[in-house]
């Protein structure tokens, strides 16, 4: 197959170019431009970083350092660079004015490539209209995912009273490097996400293909619609699309069938991401930090004897001769799956049932998931006497299942807005304690000063 040398350079490289100054993220460089439908297929097939492009699997990781799934001890503190420590301390700024924010650049990198495919693939040479429509739909799903993560990282949680005015993120939709990059409102960003996903429906394969689960499919587009509507507190639509996604594809891994871990003695090993049948669309992480200790409160949520997730997702640091607690195996030699999954959809549908007063239906979804996670013959069935009680169970199960996978910070933000849960995040590092209050503006990541210097119309988040 033809190898497309289509290189994407990050904004910092372009400061030397005086003819153009409006750079949010990336621009193309090189003489070989995609022309055929197969060329665009290759662009969307890129899963790993090549040149300055991150591919479509890498996503984000700064959320983990802001939330409460992890904790820092005297041993692990030395593993975090200055920007990591700024995140842990909820600092005014995370990066120096010359430094790049890898989350921002990775996601906008994907937006740019998606924009290219969306605008040009229908006029490409060769293949059928159906194939071109499929590629355009895939690009729309990738773009929707990127914007959904961006708006949740760099903007306030969606609220019905604030979304029309709250600053979202710039909606980069074209290929013009001189376009204005004013921040759209949170509502405008969500409208854009929903529209992209709706346009993709009906043009994609129904279910993930073996070894190609990085490609969007109908079930993953429906799952992202469910996630977006859940974050909007539109539980009727979230239920509709979670249910549709599960009707399209509902496979769960049975943790009783997992092989022994080759890295951690006494632990189990999930299938590699490409072979993981629960993944609807593979997205992973870009963090270089490799040692994350699980928060003691998180570990306390697991039944250590019977919940097989405990010995699959965590390992005692006794393996390296320490006694500080448990480390995330997802972040130690593996790549955490952060895209939509069937497990997420069971939890989303259960939450929607609970919020709609359907206690037994919510319990059924929770217990279906737990049956695949608990040791055969052990007691895993949950019971509840009210919607409020089952909602509490859903939140706990969601935290257990999705820990370290890109959900907790966003969940805290929305629980504080819609439920008044008043969750305060506390981090201790280098002998000092830092807190993030429920209504703190610091729950929103600051935008890198580098990008505002290049694009002065981008307003900074208040601190």
Order of SSEs, N→C? Answer: EEHHEHHHEEHHHEHHEEHHHHEEH
Total of helices? 15
Shape: globular
CATH architecture of the largest domain: Alpha Horseshoe
Kindly name the structural category: mainly alpha
| Strand elements, count | 10
Supply Rg.
22 Å
Please tell me about this protein's structure.
The relative contact order is 0.14. The strands form 5 sheets. A two-stranded antiparallel sheet has the order 1-2. Strands 3-6 form a two-stranded antiparallel sheet. Strands 4-5 form a two-stranded antiparallel ribbon. The protein has helices at about 35-45, 60-65, 80-90, 100-120, 130-155, 185-200, 220-230, 235-250, 295-300, 310-315, 340-355, 360-370, 385-400, 410-420, 450-455, and strands at about 5-10, 25-30, 70, 165-170, 185, 295, 315, 325-330, 425-430, 430-435. The chain is globular. It has 15 helices and 10 strands. Mean pLDDT is about 90; it is low at about 1-30. The longest helix has 25 residues, at about 130-155. A hairpin with a 2-residue loop joins strand 9 (about 425-430) and strand 10 (about 430-435). The protein has 2 domains: about 1-205 and about 425-463, Serine Threonine Protein Phosphatase 5, Tetratricopeptide repeat, CATH 1.25.40; about 220-280 and about 290-335 and about 340-405, Alpha Horseshoe (Serine Threonine Protein Phosphatase 5, Tetratricopeptide repeat), CATH 1.25.40.390. With about 475 residues, the protein is mainly alpha-helical. Helix 6 (about 185-200) packs antiparallel against helix 7.
């Amino acid at each position: 197959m033809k190898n497309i040398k289509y290189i994407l350079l990050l904004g910092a490289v372009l400061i030397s170019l005086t003819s153009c100054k409006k750079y949010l993220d990336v621009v193309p460089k090189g003489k070989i431009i995609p022309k055929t439908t197969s060329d665009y297929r290759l662009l969307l097939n890129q899963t790993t970083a090549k040149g300055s492009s991150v591919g479509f699997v890498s996503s984000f990781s700064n959320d983990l350092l802001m939330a409460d799934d992890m904790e820092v001890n005297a041993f692990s503190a030395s593993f975090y660079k200055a920007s990591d420590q700024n995140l842990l301390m909820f600092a005014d700024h995370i990066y120096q004015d010359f430094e790049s924010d890898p989350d921002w650049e990775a996601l906008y990198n994907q937006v740019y490539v998606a924009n290219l495919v969306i605008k040009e693939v229908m006029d490409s040479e060769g293949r059928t209209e159906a194939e071109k429509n499929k590629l355009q739909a895939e690009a729309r799903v990738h773009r929707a995912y990127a914007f959904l993560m961006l708006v949740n990282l760099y903007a306030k949680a969606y609220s019905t009273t604030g979304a029309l005015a709250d600053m979202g993120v710039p909606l980069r939709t074209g290929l013009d490097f001189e376009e204005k990059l004013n921040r759209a409102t949170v509502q405008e960003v969500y409208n854009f996400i929903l529209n992209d996903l709706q346009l993709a429906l009906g043009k994609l394969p129904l279910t993930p293909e073996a070894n190609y689960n990085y490609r969007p499919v109908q079930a993953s587009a429906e799952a992202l619609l469910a996630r977006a509507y859940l974050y909007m507190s539109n539980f009727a639509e979230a239920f509709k699309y979670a249910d549709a996604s599960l009707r399209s594809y509902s496979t769960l891994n049975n943790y009783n069938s997992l092989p022994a871990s080759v890295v951690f003695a006494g632990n189990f090993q999930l299938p590699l991401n490409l072979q993981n049948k629960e993944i609807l669309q593979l997205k992973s992480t870009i963090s270089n930090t490799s040692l994350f200790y699980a928060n003691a409160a998180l570990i306390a949520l697991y039944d250590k004897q019977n919940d097989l997730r405990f010995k699959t997702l965590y390992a005692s640091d006794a393996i390296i001769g320490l006694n500080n607690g448990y480390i995330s195996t997802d972040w130690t030699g593996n790549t955490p799956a952060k895209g939509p999954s069937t497990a997420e959809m069971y939890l989303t549908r259960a939450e929607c049932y609970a919020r709609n007063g359907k206690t037994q239906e919510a319990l059924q979804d929770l217990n279906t998931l737990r049956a695949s996670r608990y040791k055969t013959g052990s007691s895993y069935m949950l019971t509840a006497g009210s919607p409020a009680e089952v909602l509490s169970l859903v939140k706990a199960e969601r935290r257990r299942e999705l820990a370290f996978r890109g959900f907790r910070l966003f969940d805290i933000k929305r629980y504080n807005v819609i439920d008044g849960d008043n969750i305060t995040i506390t981090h201790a590092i280098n002998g000092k304690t830092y807190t993030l209050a429920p209504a703190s503006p610091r729950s929103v990541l600051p935008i890198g000063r580098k990008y505002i210097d290049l694009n002065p119309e981008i307003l900074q988040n208040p601190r």
